[in-house]
Amino acid sequence: MSYNIVSQSGVEVFVLSYGARLAGLYVPDNFGISKNIVLGFDTKAAYLNADEQYYGAIVGRFANRMNLGKFSLEIKNHQLTTNHGLHHLHGGNMGFHDKEWELLDKSKDSIRLKYFSEDGEEGYPGNLNVIVTYAMTPENGLRISYEARTDLPTPINLTHHSYFNLTGNPAMGIDNHILKINANEYTVTDADQIPTGKFKTVENTPLDFRTQRFIGQQINAEHPDMKIGNGYDHNYVLKKENSRDVILAAEVFEPISGRLMQVWTNQPGMQFYSGNGLSGKDKKNDGTVFGPRSAFCLETQHFPDSPNHKHFPSCILQPGELYQYECEYRFIHLPVSSA
What is the per-residue pLDDT across 251-307, written as a single tens digit (0 to 9) for each? Predict the structure, then answer.
Protein backbone atom coordinates (compact mmCIF):
# COMPACT_ATOMS: atom_id res chain seq x y z
CA MET A 1 0.00 0.00 0.00
CA SER A 2 1.03 3.59 -0.66
CA TYR A 3 0.04 6.57 1.48
CA ASN A 4 0.67 10.27 1.15
CA ILE A 5 0.75 13.14 3.64
CA VAL A 6 1.10 16.87 2.98
CA SER A 7 2.30 19.86 4.98
CA GLN A 8 0.66 23.29 4.96
CA SER A 9 3.68 24.67 3.11
CA GLY A 10 3.42 22.18 0.27
CA VAL A 11 5.90 19.45 1.21
CA GLU A 12 4.40 16.13 0.06
CA VAL A 13 5.42 12.70 1.29
CA PHE A 14 4.73 9.21 -0.08
CA VAL A 15 5.18 6.22 2.21
CA LEU A 16 4.90 2.53 1.29
CA SER A 17 3.80 -0.17 3.73
CA TYR A 18 6.65 -2.31 2.38
CA GLY A 19 9.57 -1.53 4.67
CA ALA A 20 7.68 1.55 5.92
CA ARG A 21 9.64 3.24 3.14
CA LEU A 22 9.76 6.90 2.25
CA ALA A 23 9.26 6.54 -1.50
CA GLY A 24 8.87 10.21 -2.33
CA LEU A 25 9.62 13.55 -0.66
CA TYR A 26 8.56 16.51 -2.79
CA VAL A 27 10.02 19.80 -1.55
CA PRO A 28 9.68 23.22 -3.23
CA ASP A 29 12.91 24.96 -4.17
CA ASN A 30 13.62 28.67 -3.84
CA PHE A 31 11.59 29.28 -7.01
CA GLY A 32 8.57 27.32 -5.78
CA ILE A 33 9.28 24.31 -8.00
CA SER A 34 8.64 21.04 -6.18
CA LYS A 35 10.83 18.00 -6.90
CA ASN A 36 11.38 14.60 -5.32
CA ILE A 37 14.63 14.82 -3.36
CA VAL A 38 14.94 11.13 -2.37
CA LEU A 39 15.71 8.00 -4.35
CA GLY A 40 12.74 5.68 -4.52
CA PHE A 41 10.17 3.77 -6.53
CA ASP A 42 6.38 3.68 -6.81
CA THR A 43 5.76 -0.01 -6.13
CA LYS A 44 6.93 -2.89 -3.95
CA ALA A 45 7.80 -4.85 -7.10
CA ALA A 46 10.29 -2.16 -8.15
CA TYR A 47 12.08 -2.43 -4.80
CA LEU A 48 12.19 -6.21 -5.03
CA ASN A 49 13.77 -5.95 -8.49
CA ALA A 50 16.35 -3.39 -7.37
CA ASP A 51 19.69 -3.84 -5.66
CA GLU A 52 19.35 -4.07 -1.88
CA GLN A 53 20.29 -0.51 -1.02
CA TYR A 54 17.61 -0.01 1.69
CA TYR A 55 16.10 2.89 -0.27
CA GLY A 56 14.01 4.99 2.13
CA ALA A 57 13.41 2.08 4.51
CA ILE A 58 13.04 1.84 8.26
CA VAL A 59 16.01 -0.34 9.18
CA GLY A 60 16.09 -2.70 12.16
CA ARG A 61 16.06 -4.53 14.50
CA PHE A 62 19.65 -3.26 14.63
CA ALA A 63 20.83 -0.80 11.99
CA ASN A 64 24.41 -0.76 10.74
CA ARG A 65 26.94 -3.50 11.47
CA MET A 66 27.31 -6.17 14.15
CA ASN A 67 30.68 -7.91 14.36
CA LEU A 68 30.32 -11.54 13.18
CA GLY A 69 26.61 -11.20 14.00
CA LYS A 70 27.40 -12.00 17.64
CA PHE A 71 26.68 -10.39 20.99
CA SER A 72 26.27 -11.48 24.61
CA LEU A 73 23.36 -10.44 26.80
CA GLU A 74 22.82 -11.48 30.40
CA ILE A 75 25.46 -14.23 30.13
CA LYS A 76 23.82 -15.68 27.04
CA ASN A 77 25.50 -15.65 23.63
CA HIS A 78 23.39 -14.77 20.59
CA GLN A 79 24.10 -15.45 16.93
CA LEU A 80 22.36 -13.29 14.34
CA THR A 81 22.16 -13.99 10.64
CA THR A 82 25.24 -12.84 8.73
CA ASN A 83 24.34 -11.07 5.50
CA HIS A 84 27.35 -8.82 4.94
CA GLY A 85 30.33 -11.11 4.53
CA LEU A 86 31.04 -12.45 8.00
CA HIS A 87 28.93 -9.77 9.65
CA HIS A 88 25.34 -8.73 10.35
CA LEU A 89 24.06 -5.60 8.58
CA HIS A 90 20.83 -3.60 8.92
CA GLY A 91 18.80 -6.31 10.65
CA GLY A 92 19.77 -9.29 8.51
CA ASN A 93 18.47 -11.00 5.39
CA MET A 94 14.84 -10.15 6.16
CA GLY A 95 15.11 -7.10 8.37
CA PHE A 96 12.44 -4.48 8.94
CA HIS A 97 13.20 -3.05 5.50
CA ASP A 98 11.82 -6.23 3.93
CA LYS A 99 8.59 -6.50 5.93
CA GLU A 100 5.03 -5.39 5.36
CA TRP A 101 4.05 -2.81 7.97
CA GLU A 102 0.45 -2.44 9.13
CA LEU A 103 -1.36 0.90 9.07
CA LEU A 104 -2.43 2.06 12.53
CA ASP A 105 -3.90 5.42 11.60
CA LYS A 106 -3.52 8.26 9.12
CA SER A 107 -4.42 11.94 8.86
CA LYS A 108 -3.68 14.59 6.25
CA ASP A 109 -0.26 15.31 7.74
CA SER A 110 0.75 12.13 9.61
CA ILE A 111 0.77 8.36 9.36
CA ARG A 112 1.53 5.62 11.89
CA LEU A 113 2.65 2.13 10.95
CA LYS A 114 3.39 -0.88 13.15
CA TYR A 115 5.36 -4.10 12.90
CA PHE A 116 5.57 -7.10 15.23
CA SER A 117 8.98 -8.78 15.28
CA GLU A 118 8.80 -12.27 16.74
CA ASP A 119 11.24 -13.72 19.24
CA GLY A 120 14.08 -15.34 17.28
CA GLU A 121 13.57 -13.33 14.08
CA GLU A 122 17.02 -13.06 12.43
CA GLY A 123 18.39 -14.39 15.74
CA TYR A 124 17.18 -11.55 18.00
CA PRO A 125 15.72 -12.35 21.43
CA GLY A 126 12.28 -11.14 22.49
CA ASN A 127 8.98 -10.27 20.90
CA LEU A 128 9.20 -6.65 19.80
CA ASN A 129 6.33 -4.30 18.99
CA VAL A 130 7.42 -1.34 16.88
CA ILE A 131 5.53 1.81 15.86
CA VAL A 132 6.89 4.35 13.37
CA THR A 133 5.24 7.71 12.79
CA TYR A 134 5.83 10.01 9.83
CA ALA A 135 4.48 13.49 10.61
CA MET A 136 4.78 16.94 9.08
CA THR A 137 5.80 19.58 11.64
CA PRO A 138 5.03 23.32 11.96
CA GLU A 139 8.73 23.97 11.29
CA ASN A 140 8.31 22.64 7.73
CA GLY A 141 9.89 19.33 8.63
CA LEU A 142 9.24 15.62 8.29
CA ARG A 143 9.55 14.01 11.73
CA ILE A 144 10.10 10.26 11.99
CA SER A 145 9.36 8.95 15.48
CA TYR A 146 10.15 5.45 16.74
CA GLU A 147 8.56 3.57 19.63
CA ALA A 148 9.16 -0.03 20.68
CA ARG A 149 8.49 -2.42 23.56
CA THR A 150 9.86 -5.90 24.22
CA ASP A 151 9.16 -8.87 26.48
CA LEU A 152 12.84 -9.88 26.73
CA PRO A 153 16.02 -7.81 26.85
CA THR A 154 17.10 -7.12 23.25
CA PRO A 155 19.36 -4.79 21.30
CA ILE A 156 17.48 -2.30 19.15
CA ASN A 157 18.74 0.43 16.85
CA LEU A 158 16.23 1.82 14.38
CA THR A 159 17.13 4.29 11.64
CA HIS A 160 15.81 5.78 8.45
CA HIS A 161 17.74 5.08 5.24
CA SER A 162 16.66 7.65 2.66
CA TYR A 163 19.11 8.75 -0.03
CA PHE A 164 18.92 12.51 -0.55
CA ASN A 165 19.82 14.70 -3.48
CA LEU A 166 18.54 18.22 -2.86
CA THR A 167 18.68 19.17 -6.54
CA GLY A 168 15.95 16.63 -7.26
CA ASN A 169 18.15 15.26 -10.04
CA PRO A 170 20.44 12.35 -9.08
CA ALA A 171 22.37 12.80 -12.34
CA MET A 172 23.83 16.01 -10.87
CA GLY A 173 25.54 14.11 -8.04
CA ILE A 174 26.19 15.36 -4.52
CA ASP A 175 29.67 16.89 -4.70
CA ASN A 176 28.34 20.47 -4.65
CA HIS A 177 26.06 19.98 -1.65
CA ILE A 178 27.43 21.95 1.31
CA LEU A 179 27.41 19.94 4.54
CA LYS A 180 27.88 20.74 8.22
CA ILE A 181 27.90 18.06 10.96
CA ASN A 182 27.73 18.77 14.70
CA ALA A 183 30.42 16.29 15.76
CA ASN A 184 34.02 16.45 16.93
CA GLU A 185 34.66 12.69 16.71
CA TYR A 186 33.78 9.57 14.77
CA THR A 187 33.98 5.87 15.59
CA VAL A 188 37.10 4.22 14.16
CA THR A 189 36.58 0.97 12.24
CA ASP A 190 38.63 -1.89 10.90
CA ALA A 191 38.83 -2.87 7.23
CA ASP A 192 35.37 -4.49 7.47
CA GLN A 193 33.89 -1.24 8.85
CA ILE A 194 33.43 -2.80 12.29
CA PRO A 195 34.15 -0.36 15.17
CA THR A 196 37.39 -0.95 17.03
CA GLY A 197 35.90 0.77 20.10
CA LYS A 198 38.07 3.85 19.67
CA PHE A 199 37.04 7.39 18.85
CA LYS A 200 39.06 9.72 16.66
CA THR A 201 38.94 13.48 16.29
CA VAL A 202 37.76 14.83 12.94
CA GLU A 203 40.31 17.65 13.16
CA ASN A 204 42.76 17.72 10.24
CA THR A 205 40.92 14.89 8.48
CA PRO A 206 38.57 14.76 5.46
CA LEU A 207 35.80 13.93 7.95
CA ASP A 208 35.81 17.41 9.47
CA PHE A 209 32.45 19.03 8.69
CA ARG A 210 32.30 21.19 11.81
CA THR A 211 32.15 24.15 9.44
CA GLN A 212 30.37 24.13 6.09
CA ARG A 213 32.20 22.33 3.31
CA PHE A 214 31.38 20.83 -0.06
CA ILE A 215 30.82 17.08 0.18
CA GLY A 216 33.05 16.54 -2.85
CA GLN A 217 35.92 18.66 -1.52
CA GLN A 218 37.87 15.77 0.03
CA ILE A 219 35.76 12.75 -0.85
CA ASN A 220 38.67 11.13 -2.71
CA ALA A 221 41.31 12.07 -0.13
CA GLU A 222 44.26 9.75 0.51
CA HIS A 223 43.22 9.01 4.07
CA PRO A 224 43.04 5.44 5.45
CA ASP A 225 39.57 5.87 6.95
CA MET A 226 38.27 7.21 3.63
CA LYS A 227 39.71 4.30 1.68
CA ILE A 228 37.85 1.71 3.74
CA GLY A 229 34.41 2.72 2.45
CA ASN A 230 35.58 4.29 -0.82
CA GLY A 231 34.33 7.66 0.43
CA TYR A 232 32.16 8.71 3.35
CA ASP A 233 30.53 5.90 5.32
CA HIS A 234 31.21 6.87 8.92
CA ASN A 235 29.38 7.09 12.22
CA TYR A 236 29.74 10.53 13.79
CA VAL A 237 29.59 10.99 17.57
CA LEU A 238 27.10 13.82 17.92
CA LYS A 239 27.92 16.68 20.26
CA LYS A 240 25.29 16.61 23.03
CA GLU A 241 24.97 18.04 26.53
CA ASN A 242 22.28 15.56 27.59
CA SER A 243 21.75 12.10 26.12
CA ARG A 244 18.01 12.72 25.54
CA ASP A 245 18.31 16.22 24.04
CA VAL A 246 17.02 16.79 20.52
CA ILE A 247 19.82 18.64 18.74
CA LEU A 248 20.71 19.96 15.31
CA ALA A 249 22.92 17.12 14.06
CA ALA A 250 23.59 18.32 10.52
CA GLU A 251 22.54 20.69 7.78
CA VAL A 252 22.95 20.48 4.04
CA PHE A 253 22.60 23.34 1.53
CA GLU A 254 22.28 22.92 -2.22
CA PRO A 255 23.11 26.27 -3.91
CA ILE A 256 21.30 25.81 -7.25
CA SER A 257 17.87 24.99 -5.81
CA GLY A 258 18.31 26.94 -2.59
CA ARG A 259 17.07 23.95 -0.59
CA LEU A 260 18.50 23.69 2.90
CA MET A 261 17.82 20.58 4.97
CA GLN A 262 18.49 20.31 8.68
CA VAL A 263 18.64 17.02 10.60
CA TRP A 264 17.40 17.09 14.21
CA THR A 265 17.58 14.06 16.49
CA ASN A 266 17.93 12.72 20.03
CA GLN A 267 20.05 9.79 18.86
CA PRO A 268 23.74 9.70 19.95
CA GLY A 269 25.19 9.10 16.47
CA MET A 270 24.69 9.69 12.78
CA GLN A 271 26.02 7.72 9.83
CA PHE A 272 27.02 9.90 6.89
CA TYR A 273 27.07 7.76 3.75
CA SER A 274 27.91 9.28 0.38
CA GLY A 275 26.22 6.57 -1.69
CA ASN A 276 29.50 4.98 -2.79
CA GLY A 277 27.86 1.56 -3.22
CA LEU A 278 25.06 2.62 -5.55
CA SER A 279 25.74 0.54 -8.64
CA GLY A 280 23.97 2.46 -11.40
CA LYS A 281 21.75 -0.55 -12.08
CA ASP A 282 18.66 1.02 -10.50
CA LYS A 283 16.69 3.74 -12.26
CA LYS A 284 13.74 6.03 -11.68
CA ASN A 285 10.67 5.64 -13.84
CA ASP A 286 11.92 8.43 -16.10
CA GLY A 287 15.22 6.60 -16.69
CA THR A 288 17.33 8.61 -14.24
CA VAL A 289 20.14 6.35 -12.97
CA PHE A 290 20.92 5.88 -9.27
CA GLY A 291 24.68 5.90 -9.73
CA PRO A 292 27.59 6.06 -7.29
CA ARG A 293 27.45 9.22 -5.17
CA SER A 294 24.23 10.37 -6.78
CA ALA A 295 22.69 10.78 -3.30
CA PHE A 296 23.70 10.70 0.37
CA CYS A 297 22.31 9.33 3.63
CA LEU A 298 22.26 10.94 7.07
CA GLU A 299 21.13 8.08 9.32
CA THR A 300 20.58 9.03 12.96
CA GLN A 301 21.26 6.01 15.14
CA HIS A 302 23.13 4.34 17.98
CA PHE A 303 26.73 3.46 17.24
CA PRO A 304 27.46 0.39 15.08
CA ASP A 305 28.23 -2.83 16.98
CA SER A 306 27.10 -1.17 20.23
CA PRO A 307 26.30 -4.42 22.14
CA ASN A 308 29.96 -5.40 21.87
CA HIS A 309 31.35 -2.13 23.30
CA LYS A 310 30.27 -1.40 26.85
CA HIS A 311 31.48 2.21 26.72
CA PHE A 312 29.18 2.98 23.77
CA PRO A 313 25.68 4.32 24.62
CA SER A 314 23.51 1.34 25.51
CA CYS A 315 21.11 0.05 22.88
CA ILE A 316 19.57 -2.65 25.09
CA LEU A 317 15.83 -2.37 25.58
CA GLN A 318 14.45 -4.00 28.71
CA PRO A 319 10.90 -5.29 29.32
CA GLY A 320 8.77 -2.48 30.74
CA GLU A 321 10.86 0.21 29.05
CA LEU A 322 9.84 2.31 26.07
CA TYR A 323 12.29 2.76 23.19
CA GLN A 324 11.64 6.32 21.99
CA TYR A 325 13.75 8.25 19.50
CA GLU A 326 13.14 10.66 16.68
CA CYS A 327 14.70 12.20 13.61
CA GLU A 328 13.40 15.28 11.81
CA TYR A 329 14.40 16.40 8.34
CA ARG A 330 13.56 20.10 8.38
CA PHE A 331 13.51 22.25 5.25
CA ILE A 332 14.49 25.92 5.19
CA HIS A 333 14.59 28.02 2.05
CA LEU A 334 17.40 30.50 1.46
CA PRO A 335 17.74 33.02 -1.38
CA VAL A 336 19.69 31.76 -4.38
CA SER A 337 22.62 33.96 -5.38
CA SER A 338 22.41 35.58 -8.80
CA ALA A 339 26.18 35.28 -9.19
Answer: 999 999 999 999 999 999 999 999 999 999 998 777 889 999 999 999 999 999 999
On whether residue 339 sits in a domain, the answer given is: no
Q: Return the DSSP state at 45.
A: H
pTM listed for this prediction: 0.95
Whether 87 is a known active-site residue: answer no
Out of 87, 161, 234, 302, pick the active-site residue.
Answer: 161
Q: Cα angle at 214 between 213 and 215, to 5 degrees?
A: 110
CB 42 within 8 A of CB 63: no
CA 313 to chain centre: 18
* Angle ∠(245,263,26) on CA atoms, nearest 5: 140
Structural domain harbouring 115 = 2-333
Q: How many domains does the chain have?
A: 1
Annotation says 254 is catalytic: no
Catalytic residue among 121, 122, 299, 328: 299
Q: Does some domain include residue 338?
A: no
Q: What CATH number does the domain containing 89 carry?
A: 2.70.98.10
In a domain, 254, yes or no: yes
Distance separating alpha carbons of residues 318 and 296, to the nearest angstrom: 33
